[in-house]
């Protein structure tokens, strides 16, 4: 922890100033910041202070710029980029995971096994802090191109292997099943040959959450406890299934991520008797925040300060509100992506707090909570960035069913059970004989958009996550229409 500034400067010198094609180098030059200037700035202001000064000077990238979907425009200059330009030129490319894509192009993120290993101690510390480091584990997580294998590899690093692996999407459910099914099997075979006792994933779809709940109950009956790795919504489904079938999961712990951990979701899971560990991270980054055992807020996490520097910057959103947007900077040499004030489209409250938990004793003193996205929609742990849906909402739906782009809107809400629902809002003026055809059309369009769009289709189709709501689309207080309408929390102002 005490070498954060040194690690940042070494990474910047090698991978930014030593890499002529780096977009960050172009931004630093526009700001008039040579490496000697950067070193002096860090010495004078500290790491976070230096990053704030760079942010004010225009040295940052937005989510859309980082994904290569928009060029960087600063000080009247335009810097054309692709997503590959933000890859760490010195990181290995051992295998690939994928995140959501736009305009039909998925975003691949190369994984360096050294970086996965570097994140393993974070998981060990968090699990130890919660007292579940040696607890039997079940993974209900995706096969490739999802991130399930990354968690299994990290647990293999500290020799705590999962007792079972359930996957919510079947081998042949996706049109890309041959490619990614073969890749998953290839990695499992090699892991087994190298002595890692990983099992083949058993297909347990999201409407079969009772299968997971009964497995956990059986494990709890042995007196050994149980730890479930899954997404927020799937964790909620497991707990609801247990309650519905008349048994509790007292003594179990559920480690969740992939979606906002709201109070209603947390309370619904706790009704089954489980403890919930919130975690914050992404395919691009790995773990960013570790759940605090002495949380002050529902989604309270400790920032992994040895791996990331985090600052916030005011960002205007719909309705005239301003949110504290998170800006990330990577500090690990083997990180797959280089980040220098990367504004990730998430926002939250960063604060210093003495909680007295074991993670604080390890030096993780900064907390993050109230984590939400200001331009992404999330349902069943599948994230769709804004542009992925814009073509469907503004062009394809009006062309197929009539109306204009102002007649269609996607809205995210929580239902009475705490589950995240996505509603396709359609103005009543648009005459549609069968609303089921609209849903089918949208799901098919997602399949055609990208592999992760197809993953969204698989998940949402299983449990009817996407539903039609006939009403006038919502406009902001300032009379602005946004095709993607995201409900705000109390931290928006």
Task: Put the structure in a nutshell.
By secondary structure, the chain is α/β, with parallel strands linked by helices. It is about 35% helix and about 25% strand. It has 14 helices and 23 strands.
Shape from CA axes? globular
Structural class: alpha/beta
Helix run count: 14
Largest sheet: 13 strands, mixed
Secondary-structure arrangement, i.e. CATH architecture of the domain at 130-283: 3-Layer(aba) Sandwich
**What are the low-pLDDT stretches, counting only 5+ consecutive residues below 50?**
100-106, 488-493
The averaged pLDDT comes out at: 87
Q: Identify the CATH class of the domain at 130-283.
A: Alpha Beta
Helicity, in percent?
25-40%
State the total count of DSSP E strands.
23
Based on CA atoms alone, the radius of gyration comes out at 22 Å
Q: What would the CATH topology of the domain at 130-283 be?
A: Rossmann fold
Q: How far from one another are the termini? A: 32 Å
Fraction of residues in β-strands: 25-35%
Write structural notes for this entry.
It is a single chain. It is globular, with a radius of gyration of 22 Å. It has 493 residues and is of the alpha/beta class. Mean pLDDT is 87; it is low at 100-106 and 488-493. The chain contains 14 helices and 23 strands. Helix 10 (263-270) links the parallel strand 10 and strand 11 (275-282). The chain is 35% helix and 26% strand.
């Amino acid at each position: 922890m005490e070498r954060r500034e040194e690690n940042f400067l070494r990474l910047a010198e090698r991978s930014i100033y030593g890499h002529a094609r780096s977009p960050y180098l172009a931004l630093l030059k526009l700001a008039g910041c040579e490496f000697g200037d950067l070193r002096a700035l860090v010495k004078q202001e500290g790491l976070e202070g230096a990053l704030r000064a760079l942010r004010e000077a225009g040295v940052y990238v937005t989510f859309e710029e980082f994904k290569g979907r928009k060029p960087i425009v600063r000080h009247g200059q335009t810097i054309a980029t692709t997503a590959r330009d933000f890859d760490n030129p010195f990181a290995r490319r051992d295998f690939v995971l994928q995140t959501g894509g736009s305009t039909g192009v998925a975003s691949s993120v190369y994984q360096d096994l050294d970086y996965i290993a570097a994140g393993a101690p974070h998981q060990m510390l968090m699990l130890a802090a919660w007292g579940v480091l040696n607890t039997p584990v079940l993974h209900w997580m995706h096969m490739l191109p999802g991130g399930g294998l990354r968690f299994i590899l990290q647990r293999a690093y500290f020799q705590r292997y999962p007792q079972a692996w359930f996957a919510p999407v079947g081998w042949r459910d996706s049109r890309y099943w041959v490619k990614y099914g073969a890749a998953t099997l290839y990695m499992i075979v090699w892991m087994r040959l190298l002595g890692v006792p990983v099992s083949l994933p058993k297909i347990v779809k999201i409407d079969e959450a009772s299968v997971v709940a009964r497995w956990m109950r059986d494990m709890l009956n042995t007196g050994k406890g149980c730890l479930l790795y899954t997404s927020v919504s799937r964790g909620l489904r497991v707990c609801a299934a247990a309650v519905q079938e008349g048994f509790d999961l007292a003594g179990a712990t559920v480690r969740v991520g992939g979606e906002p951990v709201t109070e209603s979701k947390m309370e619904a899971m706790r009704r089954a008797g489980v403890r919930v560990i919130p975690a914050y991270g992404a395919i691009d980054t790995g773990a960013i925040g570790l759940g605090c055992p002495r949380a002050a807020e529902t989604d309270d996490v400790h920032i992994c300060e040895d791996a990331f520097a985090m600052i916030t910057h005011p960002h205007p959103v719909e309705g005239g509100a301003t949110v504290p947007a998170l800006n990330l900077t990577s500090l690990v040499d083997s990180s797959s992506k280089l980040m220098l004030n990367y504004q990730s489209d998430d926002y939250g409250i960063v604060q210093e707090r003495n909680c007295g938990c074991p993670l604080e004793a390890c030096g993780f003193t900064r907390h993050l909570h109230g984590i939400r996205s200001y331009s992404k929609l999330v349902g069943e742990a599948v994230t769709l960035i804004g542009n992925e849906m814009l073509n469907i909402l503004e062009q394809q739906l009006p062309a197929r069913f009539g109306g204009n782009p102002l007649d269609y809107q996607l809205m995210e809400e929580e239902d009475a059970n705490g589950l995240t629902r996505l509603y396709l809002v359609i103005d009543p003026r648009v005459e549609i004989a069968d609303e089921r055809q609209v849903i089918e059309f949208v799901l098919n369009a997602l399949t055609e958009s990208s592999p992760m769009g197809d993953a969204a289709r698989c998940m949402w189709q299983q449990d009817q996550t996407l539903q039609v709501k006939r009403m006038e689309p919502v406009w902001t207080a300032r009379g602005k229409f946004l095709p993607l309408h995201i409900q705000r929390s109390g931290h928006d102002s």
